[in-house]
Amino acid sequence: MLGKGRSRMSETILKLDNVAKIYGHTIRAVDGVSFDIKAGETLALVGESGCGKSTVARMVLGLTGLTKGGIEFDGVDISGLSQKALRSVRRELQFVFQDPYSSLDPRMTAGDIVTEPMVVHGMIRGPKQRSSVAGQLLEAVGLSARHIGQRPRQFSGGQRQRLGIIRAFALSPKLIVADEPVSALDVSIRSQVINILQDLQQEKGTAYLFISHDMPTVRHIADRVAVMYLGKIMEIAPKEQFFSAPHHPYSQALLSAVPASHPRRRRQRILLPGDPPSPAAIPTGCRFHPRCPMAQDICRVEEPPARALGDGHIAACHFAAPWPIQIPAAPHAEFA
Ligand code: SF4
């Protein structure tokens, strides 16, 4: 049942072009976001809570409308599709949400939960076939046929998220939007669930838009990393480049908070002052300038363009430079 492999890695499966979501003319929750995801690839979208990453996820899934821009999925413009038209796309575009407790219908059995998408799309008929397919799906995530009749409350948090994951994979989608899929789970079982996500991806060739604020998880699962701040992408880079040489001061601050695997690799901790400003009052120039330890006069007046740095590495900063940076003395820069 499973198995189509990572055969089309160069094919673009999702493309966001200058996507914006503005509430009530002033609240720019998402403010011109562009990126693409190739078939079978994992793009991690990271940033502090409230930066707009979950709104991006909801727009990709058609749960929130766009104010501007376009979204192409598998070569088709899906940004203006009706809910009815989106239903046919859904087969190829699935999701896993953060909270396994609320995303499963408590009245349904595990067997019905994991096979429901296939029943809806007419891929299985009759209780006998449904039961057989349910057993295979449950086994694919380390559960078994004996769990078929159990209800969500009878599973642990990790097991519930496995049900959510295999339900998303049941239709062999081309893309899964995973919004913080392990952050509600105990640290001890996160890696098991991440491994399941990776194994299924390898087997089926599915791409992930993986929303997370947890850098160790991102380091484990991502092929590329996109950093969002106040509704905009600050940096996109292949994972290795991002973790070894982040160019944007915001990325550098985020990574400075991640414990190093070896004491020699410890980075100077950069504590950013204050909280991100409100999306209703985005600062002039570079929106990061009130918190940036590198900010210069130009940053207050001129918005930095997204600069291509080679090998698919892009950073929106007038002074993008690899880590370690020489940070000029600034009254609001603190180091731990
Ligand atoms: Fe900091 Fe200026 Fe770069 Fe913005 S453009 S990140 S304020 S150095």
Please give a quick description of this structure.
This protein is of the alpha/beta class. 29% of the residues lie in helices and 23% in strands.
Explain this structure:
The protein has 336 residues and is of the alpha/beta class. The chain has a domain at 12-92 and 174-186 and 206-319: Rossmann fold (3-Layer(aba) Sandwich). 29% of the residues lie in helices and 23% in strands. It has 10 helices and 14 strands. The strands form 3 sheets. It has an 8-stranded mixed β-sheet, sandwiched between helices. A 4-stranded antiparallel β-sheet has the order 2-1-4-5, with helices on one face. The N and C termini lie far apart (52 Å). It binds iron/sulfur cluster (SF4). Iron/sulfur cluster is lined by residues 248-249, 286, 288-289, 292, 294-295, 299, 304, 317-319.
